Amino acid sequence: MSAPDAAGAAASASASDPLPEAMALAEGAAKAGIGLKLLGGLAVRVLCPDYPPRLRRDQDIDFACLSKERKKVAAYLETTGCEPDRRFNNLSGHQQMYFTAPSGRPIDVMVDQLTMCHTLDLRPSFGRQPFTIDAIDVLLSKLQIVELNEKDVRDIVHLLSALPLGREGVCLDTDRFGGLLGADWGWWRTVTGNLIKLPGLIAEKPDLVPAGAAFDPRDQVQRLSQLAADAPKTVKWRLRAKAGDRVRWYELPEEVAH
Asked: For residue 170, which phi and psi values (nearest 5 degrees)?
């Protein structure tokens, strides 16, 4: 799809569903040889297409790109009719860019990393999936949230229900999972804490597990918890572990004003 075609598809997207608009932009970028990958709830929908979507009228479109392609991404989005926030992008474009889609939806583009309660470096596995960041990074972007809400839990359960744990193909990459948690105690503490909560949350709301789930998310949680326990720990991890919960290990991100 050319940039004008992507713009046309974006402009005709349903007001209640941002996915057609987002996919038109991602597919157009891919055909142009530009890395623009979905993250967040829309990435979950792309990776779990058979499960009921979580729709919000005010949902933003969240993308990621690499810093080496930042200018190409910005130029591509402008050709599709997306309006840049030039002041914000000039000041903060090395970390994040902001646009308004032809439909009026806000578009955030994270550059190289996603910084929330923890910092997730997206570069190592950025190219694994055509239209989204890597599946394990989508999962980690949810598991890193210290104060989970129901939509985050639903996204986590959908990913665990749809995708196998593994090392190749469309899967939840166990090597990347173990490597990250074994290197950073803060990440380990938040992710394992959320994994402990999940079986109880599923028991409280069984409908979190979609009908026809390919995998039992409770079994997946057990396997991930064991992987976190067994992952070799770095010296830095062990030193930080000695301080434990006495020192806060996470950030509470604030919304960025545009």
From this structure: -80, 100
